[in-house]
């Protein structure tokens, strides 16, 4: 098979990278050339480093009430309602952390918690695979937070 760089092809540059198995098949397949592979790795590494080096204050919540004193006002209980309450939603929280032992930075699941019925996510699994499994199971991301040089994903379905 003829291997072509999809990025070079998109840029209008010569895209032929080489040939891959099976050699008797003359169809084309796409991958990336050495230059674009390195560029992608640099972008990923830079993004992970920026996330790791971001000050903790970026993730801190800001007091917008203008006071540090506790709220002591009493709120009456809500009136009885005749409308149906929505069904409870299933939730998953995935915390991913960078891992550099192989030389290339990659995100691995450091902890995971899913409600009953959600897919089981094992610590140490690739973060992208864990998120993909949850998307396939019908979950959607509602929040992403940087937490102590890690990323916390909150998903619901």
TL;DR?
The two termini are about 40 Å apart. The radius of gyration is 23 Å and the shape is elongated.
Helix and strand topology:
Elements: E1 2-5, H1 6-11, E2 16-19, E3 28-31, H2 34-53, E4 91-99, E5 106-114, H3 127-136, E6 140-147, E7 150-156
Parallel strand pairs: 1-3
Antiparallel strand pairs: 1-2, 4-5, 4-7, 6-7
List keywords for this structure.
157 residues, alpha+beta, Gtp Cyclohydrolase I Feedback Regulatory Protein, Chain: K, 2 domains, three-stranded mixed sheet, 7 strands, 23% helix, 29% strand
Using only C-alpha atoms, the radius of gyration works out to 23 Å
Structural class: alpha+beta
> Which H/E pattern describes the elements?
EHEEHEEHEE
Query: In one word, what is the shape?
Result: elongated
CATH classification class of the largest domain: Alpha Beta
CATH architecture field of the largest domain: 2-Layer Sandwich
Mean pLDDT: 78
Low-confidence stretches: none
Write down the domain tally: 2
DSSP E strands, number:
7
Task: Strand order, main sheet: write it out.
Answer: 5-4-7-6
Strand content: 25-35%
The major beta sheet can be summarized as: 4 strands, antiparallel
Number of helices: 3
